[in-house]
Each structure stands twice: as structure tokens, then as C-alpha cells.
Write a structure and sequence with these properties.
The chain is of the alpha/beta class. The protein has 11 helices and 5 strands. Helices cover 68% and strands 6% of the residues. The protein has a 5-stranded mixed sheet, with helices on both faces. The radius of gyration is 29 Å and the shape is elongated.
């Protein structure tokens, strides 16, 4: 007796092939995330990490040269004349530690620039002070907000805004595929506005990651999110079901790892450090740091990075619009050709019937 109806073997094989083909995407994501995150974060080591030795004369020069030689490329050690110059370098992110030697040695850092870089510098100069037989005093010239004691809250805000942005790409590209591209682009801009407002609420009233400058943070979050959404919506025209993977490569795998939110480029392999100069996540993280903690120093360059990614999004949407218009014209011409062929076939058939009569 039959146990019941079963699907034809051909149908089962087809469904299995369909599932297996779609499993390629998450498996590639697994490989990509592993390569990106472990490649960027698994073994942070300093290289050319700028620090200052405060003082003049032979003793300061000898100490700076000794640290430079001992570091074997890990540190870039300079001497500066006085404490004020050293603090100015920290507040303009030209250095990540300033050491004042003497009977009561002091290290000045700015954790708002990078807590992990400050930790590395502190370890180096704690050993230096120990060799001199003196305890090290550590002064924080630019601390983070009370709601962000590790200085990494901005990075996790970047993660939240990014996820909201590229997840919205999937919805607009998938569920909104039947809509005209101009409507999808408008939805992308609207979604980025909502995502940026959520980001500002998270950063300010909810968790207190920043204690001032919330308006500027929101503006950068909107520019950042809009760039992702426009690029993603435009790419969907070409990548279709591979859009999610493409967007994750651009705005997760390469983006989070090069943002400088956990480790600055001076602690990362060269590839990710080089991306830090122009990737949009780095533009957002460093832009917020500059705006909130460093008096807007170099803010224009970071905003320019975000603006260029936004412009790139507009360009991708423009190219996608041209491609979709071309596709519609080709489909229309094909339909007319098929209709004309059908009409001709009908006429010929009528003529054949007339001749037969």
C-alpha cells in the first residue's frame, strides 16, 4: 500500500539544486567575515605609532632614539620642546602619547582618539618608567564621554547604523523591485533619515555615548546611511540576489575592519590601514571623534569622505536607471517584434486559407 503522495524525483532534485545554490551566499559570507575580521583584528601590533618625548638636550634625544631602535618600527618617536606642544599634538591626533621623563615621569594620552592605542602606549612607557625605578603617572588629556568609557561606543553605533542601512537595501531591492527606480531611490533617502534619527537617539538620550554635538553626529549618520542605501539600491539592478553579499563586503567586511573604531590603522595590517584613509566607516567614526572631542580638527576631510560616498551612491543609481531604461526599451522592442511576427503569421494563414478555398 502506498504511504501517500510523494513529489516526483525530478521536482525534488530541482528544489535541492535551488536550495544548494542559495546556500552559496551564506557560506561566502562566513568565509568573508572570517578573513576580514580575523585578518584585521586577531593580532594587533603597532607600526609607526607616533609618540612624543618631551624635553630638549642630549638626554631626551637619546631616550627617543633608544625607544625608536628598540621598537623596530613599532613606534615613531619624536622629541618636542614642552608639554603644551605635546598636548596640542594629542588633541590634533598627531601623536598618541607624550612622555615626560624625570624623577616623577608622566605619560599624557588622549583616550578619545583611541583607547587601544593609549593602552599600547601606556604599556610601553610603564616599562620605561620601571627601568628608571619610578612609578608612571598617566594623564588623560582628552577623555571620552561618561557613557562611553572604552571609547568604542562610536564603533558600535556605526554597526547599528550600518545594519539598519544595508538591511533596508534588501527590503527596498526585494519587496520594492516592481517600483520605479526613482521611487526606490526616494525610499532609500527616507529610510536613511529614519536610520540616522535612530542612531542619534541611541548615541544621545538613550546611552549617552556623546554629551554634546549630537546634531553634527546625526548629520554625519544620515550622510553615511544615505550613501550605503543609494549604492545598495543601485547595485541591486545588476547583482539581484547577490546584492546582500555585495553590500556586506563593502559595508561590513571591509568597512567595520577599517573604521578605526576598535584599532586605529597604526595597530592593523597595512591593507586595512590603507582603507582607513577613504572608506566611509572610517569617515563616520573619525568625523564623530573630531566633532565631539577634538574641536572639529580635520573634520572637513572626514565629511568629504562621507559626501563622496553619497555622490557615488547617486552615480550608481543613475547608471542603474540608464540600464533599467535600456532594458525596458529592449523588452518593448521585443514585444513589438513578437506582435508583428504574430500578425504576419496570421495574415499568411488567412491567405493560405483563401487560396485553398
Amino acid at each position: 500500500m502506498s504511504a501517500g503522495p510523494s513529489a516526483p524525483s525530478g521536482s525534488t532534485a530541482g528544489a535541492l539544486r535551488h536550495v544548494l545554490s542559495h546556500l552559496v551566499t551564506p557560506l561566502l559570507m562566513c568565509v568573508g567575515m572570517g578573513l576580514a575580521y580575523l585578518g584585521a583584528f586577531h593580532a594587533p601590533e603597532p607600526h609607526d605609532l607616533r609618540v612624543d618625548v618631551v624635553g630638549s638636550g642630549a638626554s631626551a634625544d637619546v631616550l627617543a632614539q633608544t625607544l625608536q631602535d628598540r621598537g623596530d618600527g613599532a613606534l615613531s618617536v619624536r622629541t618636542v620642546a614642552d608639554r603644551d606642544t605635546a598636548v596640542n599634538h594629542l588633541r590634533t591626533q598627531q601623536s598618541y602619547g607624550a612622555y615626560l621623563p624625570g624623577s616623577s615621569p608622566e605619560l599624557i594620552v588622549a583616550t578619545a582618539s583611541s583607547d587601544t592605542s593609549a593602552t599600547v602606549v601606556q604599556k610601553v612607557f610603564t616599562d620605561v618608567a620601571a627601568e628608571q625605578g619610578a612609578p608612571l603617572k598617566v594623564t588623560n588629556a582628552e577623555p571620552t564621554a561618561d557613557g562611553d568609557p572604552t571609547g568604542q561606543g562610536i564603533f558600535f553605533l556605526l554597526v547599528a547604523v550600518s545594519i539598519g542601512s544595508y538591511a533596508s537595501v534588501a527590503v527596498i531591492g526585494g519587496a520594492g523591485a516592481v517600483l520605479a527606480l526613482r521611487i526606490r531611490a526616494a525610499l532609500a533617502v527616507g529610510a536613511s533619515l529614519v536610520v540616522s534619527v535612530i542612531g542619534a537617539v541611541l548615541a544621545g538620550p538613550l546611552f549617552g555615548l556623546v554629551d554634546h554635538g549630537l546634531g553634527g553626529l546625526w548629520a554625519m549618520a544620515w550622510l553615511y546611511s544615505a550613501g550605503i542605501l543609494l549604492i545598495g539600491v543601485g547595485l541591486h539592478t545588476f547583482l539581484k540576489r547577490w546584492t546582500t553579499l555585495g553590500v556586506m563586503v563593502l559595508f561590513v567586511m571591509l568597512n567595520f575592519t577599517s573604521s578605526g573604531g576598535i584599532f586605529r590603522p597604526e595597530l592593523q595590517p597595512g591593507f586595512f590601514g590603507s582603507l582607513h584613509a577613504f572608506w566611509n566607516g572610517a569617515g563616520f567614526v573619525e568625523g564623530v571623534r573630531s566633532h565631539v572631542y577634538f574641536g572639529g580638527y580635520a573634520l572637513g576631510g572626514h565629511v568629504l569622505v562621507l559626501a563622496l560616498w553619497f555622490v557615488a551612491g547617486l552615480a550608481v543609481v543613475g547608471v542603474a536607471g540608464a540600464a533599467e531604461a535600456k532594458g525596458r526599451r529592449a523588452a518593448s522592442e521585443l514585444s513589438r517584434a513578437e506582435a508583428l511576427a504574430a500578425s504576419r503569421a496570421g495574415v499568411e494563414e488567412e491567405m493560405e486559407e483563401a487560396v485553398a478555398v
